[in-house]
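[Q] Does anyone have a clean structure-token version of this?
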Amino acid sequence: MGEFLIAAMPLLLLLAALVLGRYPGCEAAIRLAERFASRRRSKGTVARNWRRPRPPAVRTPHGGLLIALGLAQRPPPLVA
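[A] Here you go.
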């Protein structure tokens, strides 16, 4: 039973903190969010960093796919 309590102790401590209304890591999460928000604002406006979207790449069949498409477009040869 002692091994189980040792393994479950972190979970029990976290559960006790949550029941008592304490949220561990809440302040660190807020500081981290503020840091990312300030970094995003300091880079400049969105309009300045905006780029024109690239057109989709045109994919042409090649290799084995080209052979497969060529064979698929005509029926198999007739057996004489």
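[Q] Thanks! Anything notable?
[A] The chain has four helices and no strands.
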